[in-house]
Predict the structure.
Amino acid sequence: MSAREAASRILGAVDESGRHYRDSLPMIASENILSPLVRRACDSDLHGRYAEGLPGKRYYQGCDDFDTIEEIGIASAQRVFGCHFANIQSTSGTVSNMAGLKALAKPGDTITAVSTADGGHISHARMGAVGLRGLNLVTYPWVESRMEPDIDAAAALIRETEPNVALFGQSVFLFPTPLEELAEAAHEVGAKVMYDAAHVLGLIAGGQFQDPLREGADVMTGSSHKTFPGPQGGFLLSDSDDPKFQRRLNSAIFPGVCSSYHLHHVAGKAVALAEFEEFGSDYAKDIIANARALGAALAAEGFEVMAEERGYTASHQVLTRHGEADSGAGRDAATLLEEAGIITNMNMLPGDTKAMSPSGLRLGVPELTRVGMRPDEMQDVARFFARALLSEEDPKTVRTDVTEFKSGFQTVHYCFESGPAYPGLA
């Protein structure tokens, strides 16, 4: 094809992707959508500009207006997260983790973390940021029925291994971490405590999950586009008022892991923070209510939902098991669900060892909540799952009904100006 044809096909695929999500039930736990004002900030001239350094201390001219944006965003983040220090420059949650590890550890140091098999993020593993930093990884003992570290055994492990960093938080994240007890053990042996809040940052900021910076975390990282409903990016946060430690954290971002840092997304984060101050608590409450309702509804339909004894979830996520470990049943379920108009992701569950053929699904409700769905609609969603996976209806028939159902939920909420959730599509 010609270059012009290639550009045309790319833009056509962009539109088709938007229609795909508009007409489906997007349930990937790490995704969300933008409010009209955040979208406006992101779709601005800032996308091509540079601003290395900090407000008032730049390596480029032309940054005065962006200094205003970043200063407002930092102050808003400090209020939203109740902390003394906030860096809003990071381009992703993983980049935030890289910066945190750079600030807290040096190559050859030991770190304790949740294993990927138990729900830890890939950046907590040797294949990711932990390995990139050259750290010695030791993983926590895990209680599958509670989907959390074994408190006593993990505390004993920390005291025995004396890590330099004790890292908590997960990618599969159903319940608050027993952080106070484990942070106490970490601080006893001189370790810094880092909490990866990527998935649950909005729930934390909304006062609905846990409060890591008051429960012993020295540093908290997070993503700005999951339960926190902003553009893709990250945060690096601390309640330390030690100027030296704050400089270390800022330096870990720049020049540590970022040069320029996607200024249009920083502006979007700043707007999202302002909107979160107004609407975040309600949004976080509604996310959790929907996730709990979805877990119960799926169980009632006959699915195996993880952590039944704890009420399935206290976050935005629900986990379902669809077959034996490493059977690929989660992959097969995700494929069939997409044919039926439900977008999910396969996920390893405890017992799985093969990332590409796991037994489970990880389901999230942030986007469904953002477009106005409530617990009653979670009953409808669960029935769509059952029709596709248990009753084995023709997925095309299910998809037609899903599209009709979703047509009633096309407006983004919890923001200053409501508008189309999937704008610009015919």
User: Anything to note?
Assistant: Residues 263-301 form the longest helix (39 residues).
